[in-house]
Amino acid sequence: MADIPAVVETPVETTAATATTTAATAEPAATPAAPALVAPAEPQSALTEKFTDAEWAALKELRATLPAVWKAAYAPDDAQAEPKPFTIWGVTIDPANPTSSAKVSVVLMKFLRARELKVKDAETMLIATLRWRDEMKVDELVKESFPEDVFGKAGHNFGKDKHGRPVSYNIYGGEVDVKAVFSDIRRFIRWRIQFMEKSIELLDFETIDQMLQIHDYEGVSMMSRDANQKAAASEATNIFQNHYPEFLAMKFFVNVPTFMSWVFWAFKAVLSAKTFAKLNMVGTGKSTIAAALLPYIEVKELPAKFGGDAQPEGW
Description:
Elements: H1 53-64, H2 66-74, E1 86-88, E2 91-93, H3 102-114, H4 119-136, H5 138-141, H6 148-151, E3 155-160, E4 166-171, H7 178-181, H8 185-200, E5 211-216, H9 227-243, E6 248-254, H10 261-266, H11 273-276, E7 279-281, H12 286-293
Parallel strand pairs: 4-5, 5-6, 6-7
Antiparallel strand pairs: 1-2, 3-4
């Protein structure tokens, strides 16, 4: 939500020194010098090509910590354990060979950017995330089934923005029975993690590694926000802040009544300044919402209920 690229050295072309010869005395040609060793090229992608020098430097440091990261996350009490490849968000990271894929660089950079390129902090965040995913059994969680009548219309991935990023919709109002959605906080959190993981599956980590999110609160009032909703929102915010770094390009809260603007500002106390800057509160009504979203999403990609032309099935 940093490794300095290997410089490919151009082999120095050496030619045999041609001695001036005469029929009488011919000097032997000099032995050609051995070609310079060529460093293997650093795998690149459209995303890694945008890394700054400071980011490459930080990435190089973080890569060097990966064996220790693996041990701290998966085998903290086994001194003999040897680091093994692990997979996160569909990208396999081999601590012994972290330069094998540009996708690995993109994933690691998320942790660095989330911690302002402070390598130690990024390392700590990565360890905590790997432990959390292991404890939550995220790979199994994504295969769980949740009641269609409760969550069927609560989350949708539909269309892309003008930069090709997927757009994720969370519906917490309208036809969705919000009371039922939040009736079991544990269940909601597991569903919400699954929905996030499915949204991430739409990212290729080569050209796109972020998404737009739109949260719809149509018909929600201050009085309808109960203790379960507040607790679930707080826990979900904590999870995404700490374990899903730099996936959010922008987030829009739509159909938010003016008198509920305090909810939006409450996020400022729990989110980093960088994340908070990506949040946008939008009022009610198609024209108001369309005015906020159409600069980012083509009208053909925006659902009609938000002022676009698209007619998604199942909404």
